[in-house]
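User: Just a sanity check before I run the rest of the batch. Below are the structure tokens for the first item. I only need the designed sequence back.
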């Protein structure tokens, strides 16, 4: 390790840092410790004469200070720098040969403005064209005036999503049905969701004719049974019993045959208003008397077949159901009671169950469980029912046929 030293300020002899007097000249060393460097680093040396002109280097071997201000430490004289091109590299001027030179900026001259009152000279031979005058005897045509009392009717545009060609009266999702209570025939006033009447529905009762048919059928039934009993009593024995059994067997079919022959079918008509001048739809009862199966056919005013409604009484034991078939025989919709629990309660309680739980129907898409509508027959003051098809947002069901099915559900089923 190098020893810390400092020079004598009088003779320059190197002394240790702890020396108080110079061993050569006897000079007393100042109390200022000065500064030096370890390991030969460069640092200025402070003395009473002031800092040295050049920093000193300290040698680690002999702990001597070398003055760097001598001529032996002067930097060498190098020739002045003059850049020379690299061998094989083209001169500076040839680098830009072949490149387009930038254009000098053009000076934009301001456009001269015409003096006030200046008029350009007219072209030789130019003649301005005079305005055309109407021909003699010409009378401008007056606009046609509408006839008194005439009001132009705006064309009714079908709402988006409904089938084209459908009457605008059926282009809606909610129908309110109100049945006229005091009437022999079944009559309905169909309104929109705001209560405005739009359609009139009627199903004639044909009371006189159907009553006569019932009386005649009953008379035939009683006559056959009475005749069989009297004949069996007169003959007696086994032959009389056989005649009585034959009379009992043929009595019911004979009664039904007379009833079907004399009774009138109860069709359903849809009209624009109670005057029944403009029919909109027709639902026909296919058969007069049916024991287990009921069918209705829906037709437009032109007689085209639109749909068929079918019901099987065997299914009524558990849950009432109607099926809507297309003209091609495809199932489009199934209408059934809203809840099987309520359906069982109605059958167990009888008329009391019908009074407590009104029969509502839900519309299911084809044969699936996807509900797309509901026929709500909850009791109200005016006995108004609602056919709600808002769940059928894709308008898969024809609104005309859906309304017809709602009326059939109300007329063909008990409350």
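Assistant: Here's the designed sequence for the first item:
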């Amino acid at each position: 390790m190098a020893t810390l030293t400092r020079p004598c300020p009088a003779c320059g002899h190197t002394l240790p840092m702890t020396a108080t007097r110079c061993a050569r000249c006897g000079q007393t060393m100042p109390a200022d410790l000065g500064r030096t460097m370890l390991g030969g680093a460069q640092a200025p040396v402070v003395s009473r004469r002031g800092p040295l002109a050049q920093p000193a280097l300290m040698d680690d071997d002999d702990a001597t200070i070398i003055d760097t201000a001598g001529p032996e430490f002067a930097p060498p004289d190098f020739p002045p720098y003059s850049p020379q091109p690299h061998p094989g590299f083209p001169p500076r001027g040839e680098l830009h040969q072949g490149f387009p030179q930038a254009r000098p900026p053009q000076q934009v001259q301001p456009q001269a403005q015409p003096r006030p009152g200046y008029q350009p000279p007219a072209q030789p031979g130019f003649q301005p064209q005079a305005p055309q005058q109407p021909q003699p005897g010409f009378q401008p045509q007056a606009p046609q005036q509408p006839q008194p009392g005439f009001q132009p009717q705006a064309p009714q545009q079908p709402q988006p999503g409904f089938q084209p060609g459908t009457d605008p009266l059926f282009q809606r999702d909610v129908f309110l049905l109100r049945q006229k209570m005091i009437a022999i025939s079944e009559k309905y006033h169909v309104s929109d969701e705001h209560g405005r009447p739009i359609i009139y529905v009627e199903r004639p009762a044909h009371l006189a004719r159907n009553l006569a048919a019932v009386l005649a059928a009953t008379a035939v039934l009683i006559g056959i049974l009475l005749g069989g009993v009297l004949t069996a009593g007169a003959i007696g024995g086994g032959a009389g019993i056989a005649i009585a059994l034959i009379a009992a067997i043929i009595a019911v079919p004979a009664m039904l045959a007379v009833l079907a022959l004399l009774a009138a079918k109860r069709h359903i008509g849809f009209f624009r208003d109670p005057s029944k001048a403009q029919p909109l739809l027709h639902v026909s009862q296919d058969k007069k008397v049916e024991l287990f199966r009921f069918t209705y056919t829906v037709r437009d005013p032109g007689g085209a077949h639109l749909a068929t409604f079918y019901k099987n009484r065997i299914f009524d034991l558990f849950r009432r159901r109607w099926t809507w078939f297309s003209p091609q025989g495809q199932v489009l919709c199934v209408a059934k009671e809203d809840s099987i629990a309520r359906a069982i309660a109605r059958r167990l309680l009888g008329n009391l169950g019908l009074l407590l739980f009104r029969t509502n129907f839900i519309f299911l898409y084809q044969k699936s469980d996807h509900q797309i509508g509901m026929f709500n027959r909850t009791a109200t003051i005016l006995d108004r029912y609602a056919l709600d098809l808002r769940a059928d947002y894709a308008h898969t069901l024809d609104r005309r046929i859906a309304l017809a099915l709602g009326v059939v559900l109300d007329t063909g089923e008990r409350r």
